[in-house]
Design brief:
Blueprint (H helix, E strand, L loop, with lengths): L6 H15 L12 E6 L1 H19 L2 E5 L3 H9 L5 E4 L14 E14 L7 E2 L1 H8 L17 E5 L5 H11 L10 E3 L2 H9 L4 E6 H4 L5 E5 L6 H5 L6 E8 L6 H12 L1 H9 L3 E2 L6 H14 L3
Parallel strand pairs: 1-2, 1-3, 5-9, 6-7, 6-8
Antiparallel strand pairs: 3-10, 4-8, 4-9, 4-10, 4-11
Helix pairs in contact: 1-11, 2-10
């Protein structure tokens, strides 16, 4: 499948943030209100657990949190089953189940290559990572490691946040098949499995990976640290979104929470968790537009 990512999407999202939900003049939140959040585990561990606690302390509004993945974080919002969603992918084109969800970018995360802490490999190239997912590299000695089988662990489904982002970044093909030793229903079990398997490798969100006993492998000599994400030097950066339904009866309360994320306290939580507040990385949109233009010129 060919991909034609449009720069206008990024511009439209930015305008929504700057002129819509990120306003500072929203009515105060109502103490005693309860909101429900559903979404990807990476978003949850990256910022939502900490943000929800702080928001309740500041406003009295409780946010119940449950997982389920990026797709659930969009579709449960669109259907009205939950108030707020967390996702690290955009809505799928022509997917009616996602039509009524509005996505607001709140941060920049990165996809991290993860291995067991005892694995001696320190660095991989982008080409090597592609070959790993295509099943062309099957032994760690091909990467300068031990003479041992390389076991790739992947997330189930092509439309998960990690799976879709990887396919776009590595192959510009959302239908690309991965050759994996084991497939996991969500990122949590995948991360836990790599914690116990010295010959395993996988990819997850950097903010989630940092909270595990895992080793983050350099990509092209760069680590997925805060500054490398913020300036775009780490290649696999991506936005993270909150989703909501504008027809939700609690829409104003939801917008107040999003505004809180963009405020001083909210951005501090994001930065403390190692991810970049969205407006601090606003220049990354220009890089994305340029990358998308180059992809279109190459016929991708």
């Amino acid at each position: 499948m060919s991909i034609h990512p449009a720069g206008s999407t990024w511009l439209a999202i930015t305008l929504l943030v700057l002129t819509g939900t990120a306003r500072a003049d929203l009515e105060p939140a109502s103490a005693g209100v309860t909101l429900n959040w559903t979404g990807c585990g990476i978003s949850r561990h990256a910022y939502m657990d900490d943000l929800a606690k702080l928001y309740e302390a500041r406003t009295g509004v409780k946010i119940n949190i449950s997982g389920g993945g990026a797709t659930k974080g969009i579709r449960d919002v669109a259907s009205g089953e939950t108030d707020i969603g967390g996702t690290c992918r955009l809505k799928l084109p022509n997917e009616g189940a996602e039509e009524h969800a509005t996505l607001v970018p709140v941060a920049w995360d990165a996809l991290a290559v993860i291995v067991h802490p005892d694995n001696p490999v320190q660095d991989v190239s982008l080409n090597q990572l592609q070959d790993i997912f295509l099943g062309k590299i099957t032994n760690w000695k091909e990467l300068g490691g031990n003479d041992a089988p390389l076991r790739l662990y992947v997330r189930q489904g092509k439309n998960s946040g990690v799976g879709r982002s990887l396919r776009k970044h590595l192959f510009a093909n959302y239908d690309q098949e991965f050759v994996a030793a084991e497939i996991f229903p969500s990122t949590g079990p995948l991360e836990r499995a790599i914690e116990t398997d010295v010959n395993a490798i996988g990819v997850t969100g950097v903010s989630s990976a940092r909270k595990r006993n895992l080793k983050l492998v350099l990509l092209e000599g760069r680590d997925p640290g805060y500054e490398n994400i913020r300036n775009g030097d780490y290649l696999l950066y991506r936005p993270m979104y909150l989703s909501y339904n504008a027809d939700n009866a609690r829409a104003e309360e939801i917008k107040h929470f999003i505004s809180f994320i963009y405020g001083k306290d909210g951005t501090a939580v994001l930065a403390n968790n190692g991810i970049v507040p969205y407006l601090d990385g606003i220049h990354l949109i220009r890089k994305k537009i340029a990358q998308n233009r180059d992809a279109r010129e190459r016929g991708l």
